[in-house]
Amino acid sequence: MPESERTPPLWPFPAAQEISEVLEWRTDVLQARAGEQRIALRPRPREIVTFRHRLDALGMARATELARAGFVGDWDVPLWHLAVQPVADLTQGATEVPIDPTVSDFQAGKLAGIAVDGGEVAPVAIATVQPDRLILAEPLGLQLPAMSVAARRITVVPIRAGILTSPVEITRRRQGDGTVTASFLLRDTPHLSPLTLPSYLGRPVQTDPSLVRRSLAASLRQAVEYVDNGFGPVVIEPIRDLFERSEAITLKAQGPAKRQALRRWLWSLRGRQASFWLPTWGHELQLRSAMTPGAELMRVAPVVSVASIGSYVGRRIMLEMPGSLRFRTITAAIEDGPDHRLTLSSNLGEAVPLGTKVHFLTCVRSDTDRIEIQHGAVASEVTLPVVEVLE
After folding, report:
1. Per the domain annotation, does 34 fall within a domain?
2. Of the candidates 157, 188, 12, 13, which has an alpha carbon nearest to the alpha carbon of residue 80?
3. DSSP assignment of 272-291, as one string?
4. Same domain, yes or no, for 250 and 377?
């Protein structure tokens, strides 16, 4: 049989512990004094997944022999981090698997895996993907251990082609208990549709309430050059006009639907290519008085001098209104007694009560082309470094 027609071996072992999913883009960032240009060199990410399997002596022996026989070839890799459960029991002879395919990466013409009671997967071919089910190319048979299996005992996972990217590692705790670690570079990266988020001025706004700001990772800087001739005072010369603020944000997603939404949003960033609005969540602007529905003036406690460059005018803000989040631009600022009076780009169309939280909006992008998602038993989590950019 020609090499190209060989069926790739299946890596069937159930995943245990945390699963790592890495997305890697390539972006060439060309920086100038007043801005930057970002050139995409890789339109779709490389996707690397790392699984850890808790196996007995027989399982470790099988993993060893599988790796020995097919290390340099393609593999059929079950994607355990995208596992879903069917919404109804499965029976032998059935040609449909009732699931929600929108929360995973099932594809027509590809394979899916069925595991019962957390065991190894058995592959099935997908004919078509419907909004509420998978239509199989052949009826279910030996994939199920009995004529009928309860839905709560079943796990359905997509299967994609991949290659091993590093040595398969085996750590034995005792003779019949060990952990096998394997990393795969997946082929045929899917095209995930962008997540629908609130938008302002043509950019999405990341308003996920699970976002946690890590203040210890924050930094404020501007690119400068220190000129020191060794005899006189040190002189600072700015290299770029942009004042850069960088931070690390952490997002968590619990459940298949939120997990897929997180993945879709990360896909839409394309590494360092796309920019978005990020609220500071700092409650910087504290209202001194309530606003009427038609008011465009906002009285706030002083934050900085209204005469300083870039203090208020031109800044974007987000208001946490009782029913929704609203976005506006500050167009003017003056001193009004002990307070500052800000003019907004338009009124809110509703009353703004005293105590409403108002945050600055910052235009940012990812500061890395490599994004790592940790998929745990309860939730998926990603920590993303971001850096402020010009709008």
Report:
1. yes
2. 157
3. TT-EEEEE--S--B-BSS-B
4. yes
Does 166 share its domain with 255? no
94 burial class (0-12, 13-18, 19+ CB within 10 angstroms)?
middle
Judge whether 194 lies within some domain.
Answer: no
Q: How many CB atoms lie within 10 A of CB 325?
A: 14
Supply the range of the domain harboring residue 134.
3-186
Contact 342, 332 (CB under 8 A): yes
Task: Please count the CA atoms within 13 angstroms of the CA of 235 that sit on its side-chain side.
Answer: 7
Position 79, amino acid: L
pLDDT digits (tens, 9 = 90+) for 155-210: 999 999 999 999 999 999 888 899 999 999 999 888 888 889 999 999 999 988 66
DSSP summary character for residue 293: T
253 touches 380 (CB < 8 A): yes
The answer to the question of residue 14 being in a domain is yes
Kindly state whether residue 193 falls inside one of the protein's structural domains: no
143 and 204 share one domain: no
Q: Do 157 and 260 belong together in one domain?
A: no
| Residue 231 contacts residue 344 (beta carbons within 8 Å) | no
In this predicted structure, which of 204-218, 248-262, 306-320 has the lowest mean pLDDT? 204-218
CA dist 135 and 23 (Å) reads 29
Q: Are residues 139 and 206 in the same domain?
A: no
Q: Identify the DSSP state of 110.
A: S
Q: What gap in Å lies between CA 122 and CA 142, rounded to an integer?
A: 8
Shared-domain flag, residues 14 and 69: yes
pTM of structure:
0.87
Distance of CA 95 to the CA centre of its chain: 34
**How many domains is the chain partitioned into structurally?**
2
Q: In which band, very low, low, confident or very high, does the pLDDT at 211 lie, cut at 50, 70 and 90?
A: low
For residue 35, what is the enclosing H or E element? strand 35-40
Calpha distance 28→37 (Å, rounded) = 8
Tell me, yes or no, whether 156 and 304 share the same domain.
no
